[in-house]
Every structure is written in C-alpha cells, then in structure tokens.
Design a protein that fits this description.
Strand 7 (331-334) and strand 8 (337-341) form a beta hairpin. The protein is flat. The chain is built from six helices and nine strands, in the order αββαβααβαββαβββ. Among the domains are: 99-179; 191-350, no CATH class. 33% of the residues lie in helices and 13% in strands. The protein has a six-stranded mixed sheet with strand order 4-5-6-9-8-7, covered by helices on one side. The chain is α+β, with helices and mostly antiparallel strands.
Length: 350
C-alpha cells in the first residue's frame, strides 16, 4: 500500500512538472525576446542653454548628451517587440494609427482579437495535455481512488475544452463581429441646418424674398387650396382627424404666428395616422417664409410633404421604432423617410 501511494504521489508530481514545463515552453515561444530588434530609442531631452532651461521631445540619447554636462535624457517606453495588431514605428515605438499602408487595421482591437485566438488555442492544448495526464494516471494506477481521479481529470479537461471552443463557435455563428474587439470609435458627422426654423428676410428696396415673392402679397388659393379636415377615416387629400395645426391659417406672405396647410401633401400624415394612431400637432407647414433663414433654402413649400410636428412620446416611439431616445440635431430613418429631431418638434422631410 505504501508503494502504491508513493507511485501515486510520484505520478501526480510528474504530471504537475509536465504541465508547468509546457506552460514555460509556451511562454518562451510567445516571448517578445525572440523578436527583439535593435533600434535607436527616442526620448525627452532637458538641458540649459544661455541660462535658460530647454526641453525637447523625440531626441536620440547621443544627440541629447552632446549638448553638454547639463543635458539629461529620459527615454520613452518601448516594447521588446511590436505587439500584434498595433504596428511599429521606425523608431521602435507603438504606432497609434488605425490602419497601415495596406489599409489593414492595426488598432488595439486587432491585438485583442489575436490574443483571444491565442488564448483559446492555449486552452485547447492544455486540455489535451490534461487528458493525456489523466489517461496515464488512470492506466498506471491500481488504486480505485487514483483511477477515479484520472477519470475526473479527463472529464474536467474535456469540459473545459468544450466550453472554450463552444463559446468561440457560438459567438462566431451568431455574429462574427462579436469577436472583433475594435476599440476605435468612428467619427460621426452631424449636419444641422441652423436656419431651418429661422424666418427669411426680404430686400427692403424691392420688398421681395429670395424666390421673388412679394412681401405682404396674398397667400390664397392661387398658391394652393387650404387642406380641409378629413370627414372620414380613409379620406385622402385632407388632414387626418387626429392632425391639427398649431396656429391659424396664414393670409399673407410674410405673416408671423401662423401655420399654413395650403397645398400640403398629406401622404406622410396619412401614414403616421395609420401607424401611430396618435394625435399630431403641426408646428410648421407650407409657410416657407418662416423657414430657411438668410439663404431662403427650405423644403417647406406648397405641394411638399415636408412638415414639422410637435414632439410627443407616442410620435417619437413610432418614428424611432422603439423606446430609444433621439438626440437633438440628428437625422433618423423613419416609416415616412428621413426625419430630423429638433428637440421640441420633428422635421419630417429633407
């Protein structure tokens, strides 16, 4: 019994030595010391010149010390070898660029992607080693307890291998992008027309707007008929029953504090009525002179579907397709096309 216990102890000791030895081999294999490049290192140089302290960056040590006895040089940190995915500058430092000359990403995310694959590979290799060790322990020992321990080792190793490979396979099947640890946040360009809700100005000499319309001219049926309220739920060419205007109808060009629906194309409002089923308030219609600012450029025109609608939780939920909160000044795709969220109202249209 003592001999068998000694054999069992010797086997376990040998197993631990094999595992540790294998780990050291892997560490040595992936060690940056295998790929050390002799490069001239740069750093910060401090020296005194004409009784004034000077400090310069990106100095070679030799060039810095050549400035005299007052010069001190502090080198930058350099990795022993380029980290995978981070690139390497000619001076040996880490390249902070996101892509290399070939267009391949060398961001930190690429380094993490490489490390994930390496770690999974190491886990698989260690699992195989533990399976072999468990098999040896099971086959060479006559003790029931040792055989059970060997079987337990094999079972745990197989379970660990399945977890590692299964997690990778599952994530890769669902969406390969889940395994891409790209930490680079892409820039977003937001275009906001700051004059969208600024009234236009007319030439005092001619009293005309940029489009040639005369200030204080009648705003009547010659421009477009007033859009009537629908008398039925399925009526077309009219304002749906759930839609109202914020201000009274305009009567002259240039009039303030009015909301016009003359010639308004109500197709988008009809879509909103069917999809949202909520009450909608028009804050901006076809009264083009109240939009466009100095440039006079606006899509608020007779015959256009462009319209401004007062923001409500129900309308926002319908346009956004969920509960995501919109950000003022950004455009979003909606069931009625592109829409600009301007805080207190939605600008439906280009």
């Amino acid at each position: 019994m003592i001999i068998k216990d000694e054999n069992k102890l010797r086997l376990r000791t040998t197993s631990k030595i094999l595992v540790l030895g294998f780990i050291f081999i892997l560490i040595g294999f992936f060690s940056p010391s295998l790929d050390v490049n002799a490069v001239e290192q740069y750093g910060t140089c401090n020296w005194v010149e004409a009784e004034q302290k000077r400090k310069e960056e990106n100095y070679l040590q030799a060039n810095c010390l050549a400035k005299g006895n007052t010069a001190t040089w502090v080198g930058y940190y350099y990795p022993l070898a380029p980290l995978p995915g981070l690139g390497n500058r000619e001076d040996g430092g880490i390249d902070t660029a996101q892509i290399d000359s070939t267009g391949k990403s060398i961001a930190l995310g690429a380094y993490l992607n490489t490390m994930i694959k390496i770690i999974i590979g190491i886990a698989a290799i260690l699992s195989v080693v533990m399976i072999v060790i468990g098999g040896i322990e099971y086959m060479t020992s006559e003790l029931i307890s040792s055989k059970e321990a060997g079987k337990e080792t094999i079972k745990n190793a197989l379970f660990g291998l399945l977890v590692a490979l299964g997690a990778y396979a599952l994530l890769n099947t669902i969406n390969p992008d889940l395994l891409k640890s790209d930490l680079d946040v892409p820039g977003v360009t937001v275009t906001v027309d700051l004059e969208a809700d600024v009234p236009q100005t007319y030439d005092p000499a001619t009293r005309k707007y940029a489009n040639g319309a005369l200030f204080n001219a009648p705003w009547n049926d010659t421009v477009g008929g007033i859009t009537p309220a629908c008398t039925t739920e399925t009526g077309t060419g009219c304002l749906p029953r759930s839609v109202t205007a914020k201000q009274p109808e305009c009567s002259t060009i240039g009039q303030q504090n009015c909301t016009s629906t003359r010639g308004l194309n109500t197709s988008n409002l009809r879509t909103i009525q069917y999809g949202c089923g909520c009450n909608v308030l028009i804050t901006g219609g076809t009264e083009w002179w109240l939009h466009g600012g100095r440039s006079g450029s606006t899509t608020h025109q007779s015959g256009s579907t462009t319209v401004d609608l007062r923001t409500t939780p129900e309308l926002t939920r319908y346009l956004m397709g969920g509960t995501t909160a919109p950000v003022a000044g950004r455009r979003y795709p909606t069931p009625v096309g592109s829409a600009l969220f301007e805080g207190n109202h939605w600008h439906i249209g280009p």
